[in-house]
Amino acid sequence: MASTLEIRDLRCNVEDKEILKGVNLTVRQGEVHAIMGPNGSGKSTLAYTLMGHPRYEVTGGEVLLDGENLLELPPDERAKRGLFLAFQYPQEVPGVSVANFLRTAVNALRGEEPAGPAGSGKNLAALTALQKEIEAALEQLRWDSSFTRRYLNEGFSGGEKKKGEMLQMAVLKPKFAIMDETDSGLDIDALKDVARVFNNLRGPELGAIVITHYQRILKYIEPDFVHIMVDGRIVRSGGRELAEEVEAKGYDWIKAQVG
Ligand SMILES: Nc1ncnc2c1ncn2[C@@H]1O[C@H](COP(=O)(O)OP(=O)(O)OP(=O)(O)O)[C@@H](O)[C@H]1O
Ligand SMILES: [Mg+2]
């Protein structure tokens, strides 16, 4: 049965200021939801709150994954339930190679023992399978394997960091992915790389929230639904045409309508 992520009247404070003022959104596995909205409207706050960033204090509402309250779980447990966040601003992690990071993350999510140098046959088989998955994702990104030997995001260009988030997503295969402006700062080829990885993952197993400012990515990642967030709430929902309307007219007309 398809899983459902339900956000009900979610409210959240950052440093005692109310940012999310009652967000309602239901995402089913298999659906792609785009969220657009002016700068500062709370899109990243929603992403971080869903993932469990400690700075974001939930003051009301619920987030349910198949009925289980995610808000009571730490971020790693949310990840184990299949939630994934591609960051708007990926952090550099010097000293941890991309390959090591991916291996550790996969082992943590799947609850497997990390394979040591003298790993058992089973671990070696798992490692080889993972290596193949990483190589397949690298190919979709048109990256060579030297990237996986570098430290996570260290010295990566803005666009490379975003592609790195997609590499993680391809390998971790989340049930529900939140992509926070993964398209921002990408050249047209990189944008297509990101869309290629996404569209390969797309299907009945993936529910996605794609946060973006631009219509452009929605040509390559076609959303089933488009939502507009203004001042901590989703104030309009529709299809592709809503994104086109926003592109043409900006947000003032929506802001005027919602007061
Ligand atoms: N640590 C913080 N301290 C104070 N205010 C914060 C903090 N983090 C976020 N905010 C405020 O919360 C509001 C929402 O920010 P958020 O990053 O969620 O917006 P956004 O919709 O993602 O914007 P953008 O499109 O620019 O990425 C902004 O006014 C921001 O300044
Ligand atoms: Mg943001």
Automatic annotation (TrEMBL):
Keyword list, A-Z: ATP-binding, Nucleotide-binding
Domain ABC transporter: 5-256
Keyword Iron: no
The keyword ATP-binding is assigned to this record: yes
InterPro entries xref list: AAA+_ATPase (IPR003593), ABC_transporter-like_ATP-bd (IPR003439), FeS-cluster_ATPase_SufC (IPR010230), P-loop_NTPase (IPR027417)
Family label: Belongs to the ABC transporter superfamily. Ycf16 family.
PANTHER family referenced in this protein's UniProt entry, alphabetically: ABC TRANSPORTER I FAMILY MEMBER 6, CHLOROPLASTIC
Protein name (database record): Fe-S cluster assembly ATPase SufC
Organism: Thermaerobacter composti
Lineage: Bacteria, Bacillati, Bacillota, Clostridia, Eubacteriales
Gene: sufC
